[in-house]
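Today's session is about reading a structure prediction critically. Students often jump straight to the picture, but the first step is always the sequence itself: look for stretches that repeat, for charged clusters, for runs of hydrophobic residues. Only then move on to the predicted structure, which in these notes is written as discrete structure tokens rather than atom positions. Here is the chain we will use throughout the hour.
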Amino acid sequence: MSICGLDFGTSNTTLGTIEGEAPVLAELEAGHTTIPSAIFYEVDGAVLIGRKAIAAYVDGAPGRLMRSLKSVLGTSLIDETTRLGRQRTGFRDVIAYYLGAVKRRAEQATGLELRDVVHGRPVHFVDNAPDADRKAEETLRLIAREVGFDDVTFQFEPIAAALDYERQIDSEEVALIADIGGGTSDFSIVRLGPERHAKANRSSDILANDGVRIGGTDFDRQLSLGVVMPLFGFGSAMSRAGLDVPSSYFHDLATWSSINRMYEPRVLADIRQVRREASEPELLDRLARVVEEQRGHTLLMEVEEAKIALSDKHRADIPLEWVMPGLNAGISRPDLVSHTGQLAERIAARIRNCLTQAGLGPEDIDAVFLTGGSVQLAHVRNAIRKAVPAARLVEGDTFGAVGKGLTLEALRRYGPRA
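Below is the predicted structure for this chain, in token form.
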């Protein structure tokens, strides 16, 4: 069959095809069915994606790393360009290159020519902005056609995860699907069951959909601003009373999709000017080094790794010796909750909105199906559990459930004519 399901995620991407009647995720990198949503432009013009892109950057190869590509959809960044070597390239073209490479890899792995795709999308690309939301989907549709897909349709990512979960159950239930990914948190309340699975039209089974633009990258951002960026001058004073060092540098450096703004030629000159008027110039020296060496992604990767480590440990260190001997930072679980607790509460608030939309109470939810990397954060999981305390918690395929569900939806939509 020439059909597939494509889960282009903020952090990772999967693509599934049908074997027999079952969804199977294609091997997109050696030994892996997931591929990081990352791209690295080497100075000689070569382009790497996925794990090789991240490895090239970590190894110090000269070039430009870009991550969280999906985050620019629905924002003004999608129409902006970024400097890649001597040229400027649009973010839309960057996404097209990445998705085109993913499609080619899947075709090579499966031996299929993939023509029709069900593309995953969050419930809301952008909060409270319907026009931007529509523009984001249309941009993805045009990109998908540009890279070689003929028929492109969309499905909400939590609905796709629900279809994957439904294959596991043997009786009817009302399930809350919680997909907490890298860029968004998405929820659906769905009636599921073996008999319902065969229905051609599932619209009556979908009781509610809601979402918020909060994901793992936002937790990274808040941790970085709270723990790491003060070591580089964030919140420090200027010599002139009542003024702080401009905060825009630190917000860009703590945001995956904005880091490359810091590498524009004028930024380093600006930082050096600010340094001359700062009350703690040594902090700005650290900032200047990160920018000059283009190691902003290194900082945020270390924050991300520490955040993930706190799922199993009570404290995680952030090594900063490469910036200055003896420099380091640490994050404890209480620090994580302190800096990101509001994000977890906003996620829980969307669950309550979803329940209201469905006309249900917390006690009406039989199970919560968890998917997406950020459900591993203990305080996020606790916030979800508190919203529906009686429901059974079910662990999904963290990075594969959405892709498999999108593939099942592709079979339903395109199978008879594939």
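Discussion point for the tutorial: The chain has a mean pLDDT of 94.
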